[in-house]
Structure formats: structure tokens, C-alpha cells
Amino acid sequence: xxxxxxRRDFPWIFPLLEQIFDEMDLDTVKALPADQFYDLxxxxxxxxxxxxxxxxxxxxxxxxxRPIGVIVLYGYDAQDxxxxxxxxxxxxxxxxxxxxxxxxxxxxPHEWYIDALAVDPDAWGQGIGTKxxxxxxxxxxxxxxxxxxxxxxxxxxxxxxxxxxxxxxxTGQMTIGDRTYAHMVKAI
Length: 188
Prior knowledge:
Radius of gyration: 16 Å
CATH class: Alpha Beta
Largest sheet: 7 strands, mixed
Helix content: 25-40%
CATH architecture: 3-Layer(aba) Sandwich
């Protein structure tokens, strides 16, 4: 089953997202002590507008209603607030106000954007990622979007093949942090 994330889901969602953070190897994330980063992401998850707010997350759950997959979604216009909305929490976790955790826009105009997609490794190969992507398209259509996008690391050909198989087409490249990603778009 796929459902919107709930407040209680954070302890299961964070390790899923952490797979992505580890792969991205962002200097800004690596510079933060693990406990500070966890606390910051927890505050962001509980907030209303942050990039990884529970309001932007949908989860695939197991029979115990525990998240085993997550997808994070927002529209292009949300990028103006997704990261700035958490600055007020920096002092709460011991960070200076000028800290930059995630920088730059990743979606292009008029796109319903998939910021993150992660599945528990124990559940790989069960079609959970595909189900989350299908749900993402439905949500995007309901919100009036005609296209959905994502960025896939050029060093992850397995994921790129999956996205191509599901109808995403590469439209260019984008640098996020110090890595290069294929920007892929699908009509919805």
C-alpha cells in the first residue's frame, strides 16, 4: 500500500533517504556531524514546507504499516521555499544560520519533480519503486502537472534503465553538488 507519510514514519524514512545522501556524497552533508544532520532532517520532516517534509513524502508500507519505500515530490515553484523554510531550525541543532545543506534548483519550470526515491534494500526487486513512481504521476496529474521529472546519477545506469523503461526520457544534464545527473522527463 502507498500512503502519505505520517509524523511517526520518520525513524523509517530517514534511513531510506540516507541511502541517497550517502550516494550523493555532498560535502555540505558530510561536514555535519551525524546527530546534527539527523536532528535537522527530523525537524524538516515535521515542518510544513521543507524539501523533505512529511507533506512532500509518500511511502510504500509493509503489512505492519512500516515504510519500506519513500518518494519525495514537489512542483517547480516550491523550490523557492523548500530549503529556506528550515533555516529557523539551524540554531536548534547547533548550526549557524548561514549553513547550506542543499543548494540549487533541481526541477525546471512546469515540472512535477521527484526529489528522492528510495526503497529498503531488503525489498528491492519487488516493484515498490515502480509503484511509487506510478503514484507520483497520479498525484502530479491531480495537481495539474503535465510532466514529471527526476535527476539520475550518471554513475547509476541501473536506475537510469528503470526510468527509461518507465517512459522517462533524458533531456540534458545537471550538476548537483559535485556530481553530474541526467535530467529525465516523462509526460503525465
